[in-house]
Amino acid sequence: MQYRHLYYFVRIVEAGSFSQASRTIHVAQPALSQQIAELEASLGVSLLQRSARGVRPTVAGERLYEEASSILRKLENLPGLVRSSVGDVEGLVGLGMPASLSTTLVGPFIEQCRAKHPKITLKFIDGDSEFLREEVEKSRLDLALAFEDEFFPVVLRQPLFRQNHYLISSRLSAYATAGPTISLNDLAKIPLVLPGPLNARRIVIDRTFAEAGLSLNLAAEAVTVSSELSAVRSGAASTILNLGDMSGFSLSDFAEPMLIEPAFHLTCCAIWSNEFPLTLAAESTKKLLIDFLKAHIHATKRPGAVWLA
Description:
The protein is α/β, with parallel strands linked by helices. 44% of the residues lie in helices and 23% in strands. The chain contains 10 helices and 14 strands. It has helices at 3-15, 18-25, 29-43, 59-84, 99-116, 129-137, 184-187, 200-211, 225-234, 280-300; strands at 48-51, 54-57, 91-97, 120-126, 143-148, 155-164, 166-168, 181-183, 192-195, 218-222, 239-241, 258-261, 265-273, 305-307. The longest helix is centred in the first third of the chain and has 26 residues, at 59-84.
């Protein structure tokens, strides 16, 4: 087994097909097929299931993908790790953020990181908190910001701030000028588009309504925040977000967020692997991120946020 075997395998799994991987990494498709055949022969197992729609990993392939991704990331970081010991902190850092934070924080944080650590390269990924926690757990991300209701022991964490929830509606909706707050009783009457039942935000919403003896008026479920906001923008439904500031989105599309009372919250945490220590670059990024986020929340008086750290 050689480095190129692992590299090609990971890229094929991520691309979903040999042809797409060939275009992405500029290696001829027959050469990729030969490399995977050599890898499968050396391991004695089938790694990919092929179909007319592309490829997906077998059970053995999924395990190899997880381990190979971690190995490749460590190799990518090795030059920076060595050079950091004799000079400026250097390296590639994978950082994840939920969309409710990334829309306003990514740009300013890149600027601050470049000013403080010019040799650190950030690789950003956004997604819901459950996805980001899984990426950290599998060592495909160095660290992430995640909103949590329960603290799972699969990662290390530092709780940073609590964030209350708000009703987000279209500017054209009947609720656009209702007031700065809304009760759970009134909220139960409004059609909502929300994430699926395993999402941390949905779990705390469901629990809050159940404890109040109320039922959600669920119009639809969405996989991403962007899908939720697309439905809200159209006026089809409203949503409940742990976000009281829509400045990162098109303000002309949305009404002023309405604080839900009684208030309920999620906790924003910095999370990282409990199996592998952070590189010097990732540790420096974590410290800078926490300081940056604290200053940002205090300076902007982020609605509904209470700093904990």
